[in-house]
Amino acid sequence: MPASKHPLSVEASCVRLLARAADAASLGPTVERRALSRGANEVLIEIKAAAVNPSDVKAATGLMAYAVFPRTPGRDYAGVIIDGPPGMIGREVFGSSGDLGIRRDGSHATHLTVEADAVIDKPKGISWEAAAGIGVPFVTAMEGFRRVGVPSKDETVLVMGVNGKVGQAAVQIASWRGARVVGVVRKAEPYEGHANSAVEVIDASVVDVAARTRELTSGKGADIVFNTVGDPYFQAANQSLALRGRQILIAAIKPIVPFNILEFYRGQHTYAGIDTLALSSSATGAVLRELAPGFASGHLKPFPINEAAIYPLEHAKRAFVAVAGSSRDRVILRPA
Question: Is 254 helix (H, G, I), strand (E, B) or coil?
Answer without folding.
Answer: coil
